[in-house]
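User: Here's a structure from my thesis project, written as structure tokens. My advisor, Dr. K., wants to see whether a designed sequence matches the one we expressed. Can you design one independently, without my sequence as a hint?
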């Protein structure tokens, strides 16, 4: 039986300002109505598998749970206390998969990839199964379509079943080297997807990385259940070195194999890659949202909140969000990661915080702010409720735009309907709930001396959160 393992811990900084630390690209709807994570989950429908196991950072736990719920899937969500790359994450997945006494094949998939041909993906996995059953650690190599400098490559050895012996990994090449590899014909792009027997991976890890395995074993043994999540032990997991499965295991394993994948794959690792997932106009432009492009060629315009117009330009990337605008030449797109690092070093919050902040009960988005005031748009899912809380430095006015709010204010509980409002004084005990069957939308106006999200004293919370979550 196949156990899907969805690695959902990436940060996607090359797609800033769309992708942020609080809302990385796997949770974004970049290529359709579903997020990249949801596309990864629904892609499994062509296979016979166990319920998926999602592994991601603890700060994204409610995002993972909500996106699972939206596609009507159930699965285990495993929380990492810190990022330690793919080798430890897969080790913990293998240990958890073996707790029931079974020894499944782990289908390891990054949560942030796009695959245009789901049938071809299913076919490659099924062709890889016999090799994994024989004890090979199988990775999937994407059939290259052009000389790409943003991907690593895999050199194929002798034929082996439906694939090849894995000869070597090749680091991201310069352009001339990439052209030579394409002409060579026996190299594939490194997809970061794997099919391997849980026990075989653990055996190789014990041989090659015994300290890492010991730390993972302790992290799993001391893991704690938190609502619907499983938290790996923080102290043990942080003892793991941060290493990819390629470096930690695959490069040193004599039974490593690669199976070709020709399924319109992309890791959406750059804005050029994002452009390639859309059909351009006659002069090579791609525009999403409210973009008007005049005398413009070979450019990407992403307009999320307002009109973005271009005139007399070419080969540009223009990305607009509610709090940031990126303008870059396409030739410099790979430098976005360095730009984000510089912004972080300068103490800017934009690389980390997302304009729309997701919570287990819904979301909120800042609309305007100034000295001693802030305006937010709040959405509460049907049946959801916020914590019973109080603020020590701010008062709040709530105006219901649609739906019905159930409000607890000190000793009173009452309903607030559309076009009605209520006032929450400083220090008042209060709770907001949505008792209806449609989303509750309201405008919140905060006023006071301090408006930070950590000015929350929670007295009761069904989600067991800290004060600033």
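Assistant: Designed independently from the structure alone:
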């Amino acid at each position: 039986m196949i156990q899907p393992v969805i690695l959902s811990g990436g940060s996607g900084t090359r797609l800033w300002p769309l992708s942020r630390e609080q809302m990385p690209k796997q949770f974004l709807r970049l290529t359709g109505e579903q997020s990249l994570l949801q596309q990864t989950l629904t892609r499994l429908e062509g296979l016979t598998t166990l319920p998926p196991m999602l592994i991601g950072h603890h700060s994204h736990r409610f995002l993972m749970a909500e996106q699972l719920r939206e596609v009507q899937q159930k699965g285990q969500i495993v929380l990492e206390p810190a990022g330690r790359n793919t080798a430890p994450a897969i080790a913990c997945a293998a240990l958890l998969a073996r707790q029931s006494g079974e020894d499944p094949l782990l289908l390891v998939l990054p949560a942030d990839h796009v695959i245009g041909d789901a049938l071809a993906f299913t076919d490659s996995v099924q062709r890889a199964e016999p090799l994994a059953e024989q004890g090979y650690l199988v990775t999937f190599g994407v059939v290259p379509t052009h000389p790409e400098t943003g991907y690593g490559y895999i050199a194929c050895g002798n034929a082996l079943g439906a694939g090849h012996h894995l000869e070597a990994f090749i680091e991201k090449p310069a352009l001339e080297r990439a052209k030579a590899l394409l002409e060579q014909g026996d190299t594939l792009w490194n997809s970061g997807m794997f099919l391997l027997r849980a026990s075989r991976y653990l055996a190789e890890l014990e041989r090659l990385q015994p300290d890492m395995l010991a730390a993972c074993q302790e992290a799993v043994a001391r893991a704690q259940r938190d609502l619907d999540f499983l938290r790996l032990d923080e102290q043990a997991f942080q003892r793991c070195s941060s290493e990819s499965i390629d470096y930690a295991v695959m490069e040193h394993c004599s039974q490593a194999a690669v199976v070709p994948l020709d399924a319109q794959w992309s890791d959406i690792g750059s804005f050029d890659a994002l452009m390639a997932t859309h059909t351009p106009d006659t002069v090579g432009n791609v525009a999403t949202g409210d973009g008007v492009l005049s005398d413009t060629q070979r450019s990407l315009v992403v307009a999320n909140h307002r009109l973005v117009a271009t005139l007399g330009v070419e080969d540009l990337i223009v990305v607009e969000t509610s709090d940031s605008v990126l303008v870059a030449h396409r030739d410099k797109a790979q430098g976005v990661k360095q730009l984000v690092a510089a912004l972080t070093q300068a103490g800017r919050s934009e690389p980390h915080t997302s304009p729309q902040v997701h919570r287990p009960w819904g979301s909120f988005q800042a609309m305007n702010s100034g000295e001693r005031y802030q305006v937010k748009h709040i959405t509460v899912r049907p049946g959801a409720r916020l914590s019973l809380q109080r603020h020590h430095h701010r008062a709040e006015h709530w105006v219901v735009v649609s739906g019905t709010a159930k409000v607890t204010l000190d000793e009173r509980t009452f309903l607030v309907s559309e076009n009605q409002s209520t006032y929450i004084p400083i220090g008042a005990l209060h709770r907001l709930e949505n008792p209806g069957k449609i989303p509750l939308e309201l405008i919140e106006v905060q006023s006071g001396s301090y408006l930070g999200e950590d000015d929350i004293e929670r007295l009761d919370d069904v989600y067991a959160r800290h004060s600033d979550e």
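When you compare it with your expressed construct, this may help: The mean pLDDT is 94.
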